[in-house]
Amino acid sequence: MDFLSALRISASGLSAERTRVNAASSNLANADSTRGPDGELYQRIDPVFSAEPIEGAGPVSGGGPAGVKVEELQRDDGPGRRVYLPSHPDADAQGYVTLPNVNPIHEVVNLMSASRAYEANATAVDTLKTMAQRALDITR
């Protein structure tokens, strides 16, 4: 595999992890909201990844190197959390408010995992830059 293919693979990983961080951040920001701009309850989102062939890096189906592609941002249709808050303006007749199906602990773990994966891809890019620079230095 050449330098550019390796760089494309790491760049796709950086982009995918950025999407994952944005989704987890959005989920955390809306964890306690009772309605969004459309008046509906916020639904947790998760990015769905797939392997993406990298031109010149070999076939993905044969176990060759591949990048990461964000297929979609999927909404979690699970039920919301019901919390007893009788003084809340969105409380029902029994005093319960339905909050989004966001588990803050799960989202923080997602953020930490995405951050580590982002750092790993950034380190790979730095290593590739160093290798390319040393290869150029040899030719001098």
Shape: elongated
As a whole number of angstroms, the C-alpha radius of gyration is 21 Å
How many β strands by DSSP?
4
In the predicted model, the low-confidence regions spanning at least 5 consecutive residues are none
Strand share of the residues? 15-25%
Q: Provide the domain count.
A: 1
Can you give the mean pLDDT? 89
Euclidean distance between termini CA atoms: 24 Å
Biggest β-sheet: strands ordered side by side in the sheet: 1-2
SSE layout and pairings?
Blueprint: H1 3-29, E1 45-53, E2 66-75, E3 81-84, E4 96-99, H2 104-138
Tell me what the structure shows.
The protein is of the alpha+beta class. The protein has one domain. Helix content is about 45%, strand content about 20%. The protein has 2 helices and 4 strands; from the N terminus they run H-E-E-E-E-H. The longest helix has about 35 residues, at about 105-140. The two termini are about 25 Å apart. The model has no long low-confidence stretch (mean pLDDT about 90).
